[in-house]
């Protein structure tokens, strides 16, 4: 069935976008199903998921926290209490008051939804008990699933074609539904009618991410290992063979590689490592592995999307399409793309991976719950962003490295304690600055207008110095976030040194853990050889205490 870039390296000049907001701009109108909605209705949408065998069903939430559904309603998958299709949005009253945290869907389709409070609701197709309510009757309205989950808070959900997985806040995985190939992980091939904890090799593990292919399941644990179970006829488990796996099994070929996330297509798998590398395996008849050919791969195989670091991977069990986003913001796609087999990652003009599935996947579904930010008018914050470095409205300019940066005294005094005092009696309209470089100081001033930074990792180290000097704690967090995204074996010691120098304790711990996880390679770098003597002594002592040198 087939069914942060390196610090002090060449590519590091590309900007890394760092923001503490999870909202992103997204045009839901790119999915054909939304053409049934009016412009006014589209403006109200804040979350959405397009699903179904033809991309003809959608669930969305509005600015008022109401949930609406629209489409063909196959097997009652809209949850309205009937099987009537609807060409106009209808409100899903049975979930009134619930905030949607995550959502996934199967091929029937069936829907699994988790609320912000960690409750689980299911509805739709149920011939294989994939709703987890103990029956095989289709669910026409959302059903609260509490068996074995009553004291658990669910934080992630994933659906295969006819089975369901949920991940709890304490790192446990529960599964139910179709189990003909062992995809529920119970050790048998009997269908599982209610949630059952997936144990075996996962018994004492803390799972941080789950994913489902058509008939297989994946779990990434906090140590970076990947565990797989279910159908493997196309090698989608990455274990080297085509035999099914009825219980979780570690992907041994990834030994020494720390995986952060997994994504599953219909019968292929992608994983993203902590160094921004992508490994693939499984079915490849549409080029969905991105290896340059159409040969299936039974073992994890690294692919090069571009020299830039990958920060997001995307796939969906109902398609043979793959997508990835780089740290520099480039979006690539490969696999089945509007009927074409694209065998190598192809650079698109999109700004997010969601658009790949809206415009090129068959069917045109969404691979995750979409989050939408309104753009119908300029907010106060957006207006201020536009005024940064605007000579036409500025009443103050900074001279840095022979270049001017234009700003507004009142805004700087409102936003920064340092300027509140330094500009109090300042009557000149020019401030000369020699302590920091132009890119660093410009990024600092821009941050005061935008609440975000866009810098390469090495420049972020300089900005971290400035943030420490000016006691801008939130800016320190953003700098640390950018630097974390740029860590690699070659620059890990340099980043650790910077974290210690600027008393960035969270960043120091992150860099130390990265060094320990990649100890062999890190100790062979020039950075380690040139490490400050006292820092090296402290590093070796701390590494010894955490058992890094045990046989």
From TrEMBL:
RCC repeats, residue ranges: 118-170, 171-223, 224-275, 276-327
Positions in coiled-coil regions: none
CDD domains: BACK_RCBTB2, BTB_POZ_RCBTB2_CHC1L
Residue ranges constituting the BTB domain according to the UniProt record: 394-457
GO cellular component entries: cytoplasm
Keywords assigned: Repeat
Entry keyword annotation includes Repeat: yes
Keyword Repeat: yes
Signal peptide, first to last residue: none
PANTHER family linked: BTK-BINDING PROTEIN-RELATED (PTHR22872), RCC1 AND BTB DOMAIN CONTAINING PROTEIN 2 (PTHR22872:SF3)
Protein name as catalogued: RCC1 and BTB domain containing protein 2
Organism: Equus caballus
Species classification: Eukaryota, Metazoa, Chordata, Craniata, Vertebrata
